[in-house]
Design brief:
The complex is a heterodimer of chains A (274) and B (332). The radius of gyration of chain A is 20 Å and the shape is globular. Chain A contains ten helices and two strands, in the order H-H-E-E-H-H-H-H-H-H-H-H. Helix content of chain A is 72%, strand content 1%. Chain A has one domain. Chain B has two domains: 2-108 and 170-245, Rossmann fold (3-Layer(aba) Sandwich), CATH 3.40.50.300; 249-316, Alpha-Beta Plaits (2-Layer Sandwich). Chain B has a six-stranded mixed sheet. A four-stranded antiparallel sheet of chain B has the order 11-12-10-13. The mean pLDDT of chain B is 88. Classes of the chains: A mainly alpha (274), B alpha/beta (332).
Chain lengths: 274, 332
C-alpha cells in the first residue's frame, strides 16, 4: 500500500488551518494592531499630501497611496503570516527535528504544507472581511474604480508565489539556529528588511532613482510590491507577466535552496545529533 | 529483524574553557573534545522479542536507539533493520512504515489541536484506509483509554494522558518494530502499569518487536525476557533476565528496624562473610545473604537475640540491586 504522496501533506494543511483558528484571539489582536497602524499611516500621508501642494507624489495620488498602503497591510496578513520561522527554530532548540525524521515525510514539505494551511485560514478569516470593507472605502470614499477580474487573479497568483518566497526565506533563516542563539534578533532584522525592500512600507517609486530599476528584480518585491501593483492595475500586461515571472523564478529558486539547506541540516543532525 | 554490527558513534564538540578569558580563547582554538558515546556494540533482535536496553545516564542508550531509528548515523559499523540501513536516505523510506518510535521526553502530537486531529494527521501520513483506521483506534482505545481524551487539546493533557496518546500515535500505522525511549519517565504507578500492560498486549496480539530503554527496573521485570546492559558505550551484558539473576545468585534481603545498635563487623564475622550487614539511611538494618549458601533461620535467630525488633521486611533480589552493582563495578 503506497500512500498518496500529496495526501499526507494535506494533513498539515488542515492542521495548521485549524491551528490558526485555535489562536483566533491572539490573531485578532494582531489584526487590530495592523488596522491601527494603517489608520496612523492614513493620517500621516494625508498631512504629507496637504503639505506637498501637488495632487500626486512620485506618481501616486492620495487615494492611490492610501489604497496601496491598505493593500500592503492586508497582503501581509495572508502572504507573510506563516509559522515556519518559529516552528523550525522551536524544533531546533528543542531537538524535535530528530523525531520528525522517524516519520515518512519531508520536513521541508511538511512546513510548506503547514504554511499553505495557515495562508488559507488567514485569507478567509482576516483578509477577506477586511478587504471587503476596504474595497468599499476605495470605491465610495476615495473614488477609485472596482478592481478588474484579471487583476484580482494576478494578485492571488502573485500572493501565492510571495508566500513561497517568504516561507522559503523563513525556513532558511531559522536554520541559523544551529549557529546562533540570537535568532529573535535576526528575525526582527529580517522583518524590518523585508518590509522595506518588499515595498510594504512605501512604494518603490519613493526609493532613490538608482535603486528603482533593480528593486523589482529582487525576491522581496514578490511579497508586497508585485501583488499590490498587480491588484491596483498599475502594471501593463507585459509588466504584469514579467513581474509574475520574476516572482515565480524566485519562488522556485528559493524553494529549491530551502530544500537543499534542509537536507544539509538533516545530514548535520544525523552526524552530531539534534 | 534488527542487526547491530560493531557499531560505534563518536561526537566531537568544540573545546570550551571556563570563564571569560577562557570563552575568549575558545574563539581562537580549533581544539575539540572527542567523546565515544557508543563503542563497538553488536547484538541481534529477533521478531516478536521484547528487549530491555538499559544503562546509567550517559551510557549510550539513546544514542543507540537514535541510530537504530535512523536519526543518527553510526561513525563505524552497521545497523540493519530487515536488511536495510535506517540512516541511509533511500533505504530509510521503506523502513519508516515499519517502525514506531516514542521518546518519553518529547511529544509527536500537534500541541494546540484536539488529540483526534493528531491521529487523523498520522492516518494521512501513512495512508491508512478509513475503516482500518477506525478499527485500530478502537483497539488502541481499549488498551490505553483514549476516547475521553480525543477532544482535548494536547497541551491540556496531563503527562500520563499525553504519554498514552503518544504511545498510541506511534502504533497507529501497525509498525513491526517499536522503539521506546524511556516511555514511563515521570509517570505515576497506575499510568506506568497501564502503559506496560498495553506494551505487553501489543507484543502478544501483533507480535511487535519492542526495544525499550528505561531506568525503571520494574518495567523491565514486567516486560522483558531479554536484557542488554551497556555502560560507557560498551556492551556489558546481553542475555536473559533469568540468567542475570542466576549469575548474581539468589540474593535475599532482610530489613530490620530497631532502637538497638548492632556491631556490624562482629555480625559479619559471625556468619563467616556469608551475610553482609549494612545500615540504611531510613534507619533500617539490612542483612543480605545468598539463599543458595545459607538458610534464613540462623539469621533470624541471630537478629532476634541481639535486637529488640520493631519492624521486619523481607525482599528477594531485585533487578535494581543487581543493576546497581553492575553500574558500580562497570563490569559483570
Amino acid at each position: 500500500m503506497r500512500p498518496n504522496p500529496f495526501k499526507k501533506y494535506l494533513g498539515f494543511v488542515k492542521g495548521s488551518f485549524l491551528d490558526v483558528l485555535a489562536f483566533r484571539v491572539e490573531i485578532l489582536a494582531w489584526v487590530l494592531q495592523g488596522v491601527l497602524s494603517v489608520v496612523i499611516l492614513v493620517f500621516l500621508w494625508f498631512a504629507i499630501y496637504q503639505q506637498s501642494g501637488g495632487t500626486s507624489i512620485n506618481s501616486f495620488t492620495y487615494p492611490e497611496m492610501i489604497s496601496y498602503l491598505i493593500m500592503a497591510s492586508l497582503t501581509n496578513q495572508w502572504v507573510s503570516n506563516g509559522d515556519t520561522f518559529s516552528g523550525v527554530s522551536r524544533d531546533i532548540t528543542r531537538g524535535d527535528i530528530a523525531t520528525s525524521l522517524t516519520r515518512p515525510l519531508s520536513y521541508r514539505g511538511r512546513y510548506y504544507a503547514a504554511s499553505f494551511g495557515s495562508l488559507i485560514a488567514n485569507f478567509v478569516l482576516f483578509f477577506l472581511p477586511l478587504y471587503i470593507i476596504s474595497q468599499f472605502v476605495f470605491v465610495y470614499s476615495l473614488g477609485l474604480a472596482w478592481p478588474l477580474w484579471y487583476n484580482v487573479l494576478f494578485y492571488l497568483l502573485a500572493g501565492l508565489l510571495g508566500m513561497t518566497i517568504t516561507d522559503s526565506f523563513d525556513f532558511i533563516i531559522a536554520q541559523l539556529g544551529f549557529k546562533t542563539n540570537s535568532l529573535f534578533g535576526i528575525f526582527l532584522m529580517k522583518l524590518a528588511l523585508f518590509s522595506f525592500l518588499s515595498g510594504a512600507a512605501i512604494p518603490f517609486s519613493f526609493f532613490p532613482s538608482w535603486a528603482q530599476p533593480w528593486l523589482p528584480y529582487l525576491p522581496f518585491s514578490g511579497l508586497s510590491s508585485t501583488p499590490i501593483n498587480l491588484f491596483l492595475g498599475r502594471y501593463s500586461l507585459i509588466e504584469a507577466l514579467r513581474s509574475l515571472a520574476v516572482s515565480a523564478g524566485w519562488a522556485l529558486v528559493l524553494y529549491l535552496l530551502s530544500s537543499l539547506t534542509n537536507s544539509l541540516m538533516i545530514k548535520h543532525v544525523e552526524s552530531v545529533g539534534g | 529483524m534488527i542487526e547491530v554490527n560493531h557499531v560505534s558513534k563518536t561526537f566531537s564538540k568544540p573545546y570550551r574553557e571556563p570563564g571569560l578569558a577562557g570563552a575568549f580563547r575558545t574563539l581562537f582554538t580549533k581544539k575539540k573534545i572527542i567523546t565515544k558515546a557508543v563503542d563497538d556494540i553488536s547484538f541481534k533482535v529477533g521478531e516478536g522479542e521484547i528487549v530491555g536496553y538499559i544503562g546509567s545516564n550517559g551510557a549510550g542508550k539513546s544514542t543507540t536507539i537514535k541510530m537504530m531509528t535512523g536519526i543518527l548515523t553510526p561513525t563505524s559499523g552497521e545497523i540493519l533493520i530487515e536488511g536495510k540501513r535506517p540512516y541511509d536516505h533511500r533505504e530509510r523510506k521503506t523502513i519508516l512504515q515499519d517502525i514506531g518510535v516514542v521518546f518519553g521526553q518529547r511529544t509527536q502530537l500537534w500541541w494546540d489541536l484536539p488529540l483526534r486531529d493528531s491521529f487523523d494527521l498520522y492516518r494521512d501520513i501513512y495512508g491508512i484506509p478509513q475503516d482500518e483506521y477506525e478499527q485500530r483506534l478502537d483497539y488502541l482505545d481499549r488498551l490505553l483509554g483514549l476516547k475521553p481524551l480525543m477532544l482535548s487539546q494536547v497541551k491540556t493533557l496531563s503527562l500520563g494522558q499525553r504519554m498514552r496518546a503518544d504511545l498510541a500515535a506511534s502504533l497507529i500505522h501497525n509498525p513491526k518494530i517499536l522503539f521506546l525511549d524511556e516511555p514511563t519517565i515521570g509517570l505515576d504507578v497506575l499510568v506506568k502499569e497501564k502503559i506496560t500492560e498495553a506494551i505487553r498486549q501489543i507484543n502478544r496480539d501483533r507480535h511487535t518487536t519492542i526495544i525499550l530503554t528505561t531506568h525503571d527496573m520494574k518495567d523491565i521485570q514486567n516486560l522483558c525476557k531479554r536484557l542488554i546492559i551497556i555502560d560507557g558505550g560498551h556492551l556489558l551484558y546481553d542475555g536473559t533476565l533469568a540468567d542475570i539473576k542466576k549469575r548474581f545468585g539468589d540474593i535475599r534481603h532482610i530489613f530490620v528496624l530497631s532502637r538497638d545498635r548492632l556491631d556490624l563487623d562482629e555480625a559479619t564475622k559471625a556468619f563467616a562473610g556469608h551475610v553482609t550487614f549494612a545500615m540504611l539511611d531510613d534507619g533500617y538494618l539490612e542483612a543480605s545473604y545468598n539463599a543458595d549458601e545459607i538458610g534464613a533461620d540462623p539469621i533470624y535467630k541471630f537478629l532476634l537475640a541481639k535486637l529488640e525488633i520493631k519492624d521486619l521486611k523481607v525482599d528477594e533480589t531485585t533487578l535494581s540491586s543487581i543493576v546497581r552493582k553492575i553500574y558500580e563495578a562497570k563490569s559483570l
